[in-house]
Amino acid sequence: MSTVSIYRDAGSSPTVILYGDGGDHEMILRDLDGWYGSPESKVQLSERAYGNGAHDIAAGDVDYGARTVMVDWRIIANGRDGMLAALHAIRALAGHTVIVRVVDGMDDLYAVGYVHEAGKDKSAQNIPQQTETGTLTIVCQRPEILSWSASESQLFPVSRVSGGLSYGPEGKGLSYGPDGRGLSYGVSAEGERNLMIVGNRGTTVSYPTITV
What we know:
Oligomer: single chain
Number of helices: 1
């Protein structure tokens, strides 16, 4: 099961961490709803005046509404102080835009939204064991789910290719070579090539940046 971490500010430590691995934790993730599915689409069909069905929709015109993520939590504390501290941490998320990070298997993804509700169940809990349950509802204005870590790679020249920019042995200026024929980038080595694959583990279109 997933581990859900909720951050109030980018670059800070998580305010709340909910564990769904079945281990001995004080703050437990009971359920995660609205994360693995897609929100309702915003496509409006225009019925054909003649013939069956509606007019075709291009793939670029298929848009979705906001994503609502509901995180069901359970607190199991050793005492009243621990119970209140955990409840205060959840309640402190109210009124903030937060980052929801979900780690599940090989996935490490996140989305950004605002806390719609930080509610506690009204049903009676086990008072002697200091147990409470509730639901944290987060509305993500943009439904995209993004990768927490950037995908990066680096290419190096193949072994049989020579040439390129040279600034001389002392690095004092651009060197054009002893023959004065200008810069040389070598000849492509037959049978050798550079290959780089950068994966996109999120749910939105990404635009890779190539730096030379």
